[in-house]
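Example record used in the benchmark description.
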Amino acid sequence: MKVARAAGLPIAFAAAAFAQPPDKSPAARNAAVDLPMAPPASAKLAWHDEFDEPGQPDSTRWRYDTAFNKHGWFNGERQYYAARRLENARVENGKLIITARRERLSGEPDYGGQDYSSARLDTKGLAQWAYGFVEVRAKLPCGRGTWPAIWMLGTDDAAGWPAQGEIDIMEQVGWQPGVIHGTIHTKAYNHVLGTQIGAQKSVPSACGAYHRYQLSWTPRRILIGVDGRAYMRFVNDGSSDRAHWPFDKPQYLILNLAIGGWGGQQGIDDSALPATMSVDYVRIWQRPHPGY
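Model output (structure tokens):
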């Protein structure tokens, strides 16, 4: 059994039965909602980064993902994701600063011809969780062409995407500033098929102020929200078909700032660069017993 770590103590992944019969209605699995959300009173802080050590992000918590630099990233994105480069990812003044720049890093051995640099950090191989409450306090960029994201991906690489499951806690595209998207992708529900499960929320000050982007994930349902209010719900239909609910296995966390792709559907405003996503903290709570 893999574990997450909190203050040196192992927290076992939950693997629980349902506390009540699942709601099988399609509407319940694809519903825009307005519900309160917060870590349960019994939950303990299982993992966190307060970004209080300046310099490179903590290598015991974060990994740089550069896997597709040479071949190009997905969705028509146009950035090169740099590793251990302070111009693209650094900790200063208690914040993680991820910056996208208009520049060609042609001297890098895995350079793929990109016109932009940025960073993509994740916890893969370092920390992963099944069920819990995730909160990331962040301030977003709003330049046209930017695509900041806070999201999770299943650790089951053998299954591949989208069968491994993806939870998008926060996405914003720069041509639609102040609109936050929460989305679920599975083998049955994904953007390739046009069946993804999602909702959006207007947060007009997303680019000028910090907000708390949140996920509440239990065996029964997923809630995605902002500042203590859930606006998107996805309910497990109770079937054994993992094409619909692959979220009974661990996922890892990803923070990135892409350029182009969905964010570039109306072009890229180079005058808006450099653009920065600033993260104040990442906190993940879990219950210390099965059945979260």
